[in-house]
Write a structure and sequence with these properties.
about 375 residues, alpha/beta, Transcription Regulator spoIIAA, Heat Shock Protein 90, 5-stranded antiparallel β-sheet, elongated, disordered N terminus, STAS domain-containing protein
Length: about 375
């Protein structure tokens, strides 16, 4: 409405009607008041934003004005100085959760990496899996580079930007070559591709032993994780399941690190979806009692051992030979090393049988393992 004083007259008029049934004219007046209030509120927000921008531009050269005006539309989220899922788990999860909260509100974010002093591929892979959700949902995002040149180089060499800006397809990540020390693979609408696992095994064993070798534990772990994606991931807005795998070669120390990320809801939360009574036999109901008692770590331990927990505290086998039990079996046989799992409120250092409760919840599943010279291997005869 044109006159800012007009709504006061309208409100006074409407209040005088008391509890009478409203006429069409009175209904239109009330509607006009609601519209005016919304416009006034929106106008105040715009004026505050303009005032804030004017303060930011004071004393700044004209060449920076456009960048500053663009930046003010984003919500800053600062990464921790030690940006690592393995060495600084809870701070890194908190950082990711703040980004995800803006995603859920469909708000733009600016990822501040300026002060990061240490970064590894665990954090890069998880951040990539989360930022890709913004791209799929068509929510704008931006960020800066770390001041530390070594950290900046690590991000650039990791293929973070290449994968973030590439279209997701079923063939994404098949370009595995020996010329690169770092590779990131991604899949949509997951199909288990044994050929990709074979390529990864071939190049990984060349890094460690200087020749192609067969590592059954490595290929089994990759296949099991691909299978389990459909169970533990959540569908993104393009109605596809996404998983991410980072493979990092350390030729000097003759080892290869693997980081697998299933961003969605995590293992424990996904158990609620299990509804087939023939398979689960009140599995989730019993495990939920443990979670309510703060025993999420015990749940993961049981899952790794392929065991079922009952209210009478009896442990019984329920699910052997698949998923997590199969991956742990590869660790026990010496086929892989340093298996670590982070999901929901639990961090599991499986090789040392150490299960840690986390104060921050990670909405997904992160798995790290290594292939080293002392791991079981055989002559290549494929």
């Amino acid at each position: 409405m044109e006159n800012d004083e007009q709504p006061e007259i309208i409100v006074k008029f409407i209040n005088e009607t008391g509890g009478k049934k409203l006429s069409e004219k009175e209904k239109r007046l009330r509607y006009s008041v609601r519209v005016w209030k919304k416009r006034l509120k929106r106008r105040k927000v715009i004026e505050r934003r303009k005032k804030h921008i004017r303060r930011l531009l004071q004393g700044k050269p004209l060449s920076l004005h456009n960048d500053i005006k663009t930046r003010v539309r984003y919500n800053d989220v600062r990464a921790p100085e030690d940006f690592s899922f393995l060495t600084n788990t809870e701070e890194t999860i908190d950082f990711l959760n703040r980004i995800e909260s803006y995603f859920n509100k469909r708000k733009q974010v600016f990822v501040v990496l300026k002060n990061v002093k240490n970064i590894d591929h665990s954090a890069i892979t998880v951040l990539l899996s989360l930022m890709y959700k913004f791209r799929v949902a068509k929510i704008k995002f931006n960020g800066d580079f770390p001041d530390d040149l070594k950290v900046k180089e690590t991000i650039v060499d990791s293929q973070f930007f290449r994968k973030l800006l590439s279209p997701m397809s079923s063939d994404m990540g098949n370009d595995y070559t020996m010329t690169k020390n770092n590779q990131i693979f991604a899949r949509a609408n997951t199909i288990v591709v044994s050929e990709m696992g074979e390529k990864i095994m071939e190049e990984s064993t060349k890094t460690i032993w200087g020749e192609r070798r067969i590592c059954k534990g490595l290929q089994k772990t990759l296949i099991e994780l691909m299978h389990n994606t459909n169970n533990h991931a959540s569908r993104s807005e393009d109605n596809q399941e996404h998983w991410w795998l980072s493979v990092n070669h350390d030729k000097e120390n003759k080892k290869v690190d693997f980081y697998f990320v299933d961003y969605g809801q995590g293992i424990l939360r996904s158990l609620e979806r299990k509804s087939n009574p023939k398979i689960w036999n009140n599995f989730w109901d019993n495990f939920k009692k443990m979670i309510d008692l703060g025993s999420e770590q015990k749940v993961i331990e049981c899952l790794l051992n392929g065991e079922h927990w009952s209210p009478e505290q009896r442990i019984q086998p329920y699910y052997r030979g698949k998923g997590l039990p199969s991956i742990k079996d590869s660790l026990s046989r010496g086929q892989i090393s340093d298996l670590q799992i982070i999901t929901n409120n639990t961090r599991s250092e499986v090789d040392s049988n150490n299960f840690i409760h986390l104060s921050k919840n990670f909405n997904g599943t992160f798995i790290h393992w290594k292939l080293e010279k002392n791991n079981e291997n055989k002559i290549w005869n494929i």
